[in-house]
Amino acid sequence: EVQLVESGGGVVQPGGSRRLSCEASGFSFSSYNMNWVRQAPGKGPEWVSHISSGSRDIYYADSVRGRFTISRDNAKNSLYLQMNSLRVEDTAVYYCARVLFGNYMDVWGKGTTVTVSS
Amino acid sequence: SYVLTQPPSVSVAPGQTARITCGGNNIGSKSVHWYQQKPGQAPVLVVYDDSERPSGIPERFSGSNSGNTATLTISRVEAGDEADYYCQVWDSRSDHHYVFGTGTKVTVL
Fold first, then answer.
1. Does B59 lie at the interface with A, CB-CB under 8 angstroms?
2. What is the separation of C-alpha B91 from the centre of its chain, rounded to a whole number of angstroms?
3. Which of B45, B86, B97 lies at the smallest CB-CB distance from A45?
4. With an 8 Å Cβ cutoff, is A34 touching chain B?
5. Contacts 24+ apart (CB under 8 A), B75-79
6. Under an 8 A CB cutoff, do A35 and B98 touch?
7. pLDDT, greater one: B92 or B15
8. Residues B56 and B75: beta-carbon distance below 8 Å
9. B29-74, pLDDT tens digit by residue?
10. Which chain B residues are within 8 Å of A50, Cβ to Cβ?
């Protein structure tokens, strides 16, 4: 079964850091581009970051550029999101998603919740 | 940045047809993808590349795209179709490479 499982969410104070992980199974992880997408309470999805299969191409949304870092370890079938200088507005459910050639996301994890609050 | 506009809500009786629009500047020149999201769950891809359906998605879900409007059509609506629906495009000219629409809540009466 194709599956993505996120972990690492929790409560963090403003200005703090958090590292999210996403473990992939059931497919050849190293062959696929991957995204992080977040969804704030009551809002729609917001794309956060993209990484190509071999980590050559990396993109960030304006809202997180300079604070968040995406990475992957293909040997461990894992995707990561290092989040620094967290703000209240970063509070959201964070999803990892598999990206297909047409730049759409066909497999999503269940998400992990990050709450930034003092 | 590229903006995708959807109606906030659409109401439809069971067995009828729901049409959800997604407006964007010359969206017909882009590939549009649609996701269904039920409360507390992750989004699920229901249509990709304007009108293609992933395996496991009922034929009742279809899509079209032309000019400044893309449309997701749900035929013979069922109670289980009640959800939020989001369109999405990839815009290489925008820092928001993956752009989501504002979302439409489909209510089955």
1. no
2. 17
3. B86
4. no
5. B75/B17, B76/B15, B76/B16, B76/B17, B77/B12, B77/B13, B77/B14, B77/B15, B77/B16, B77/B17, B77/B18, B77/B106, B77/B108, B78/B14, B78/B108, B79/B14, B79/B108
6. yes
7. B15
8. no
9. 999 999 999 999 999 999 999 999 999 999 999 999 999 999 999 9
10. 97-98
DSSP per-residue letters across A41-104: TTS-EEEEEEE-TTS--EEE-TTTTTTEEEEEEGGGTEEEEEE-S--GGG-EEEEEEEE-TTS-
Above 70 in pLDDT, residue B77? yes
Confidence check: pLDDT of B96 > 70: no
Q: Which two tokens stand for residue B76?
A: 């013979």
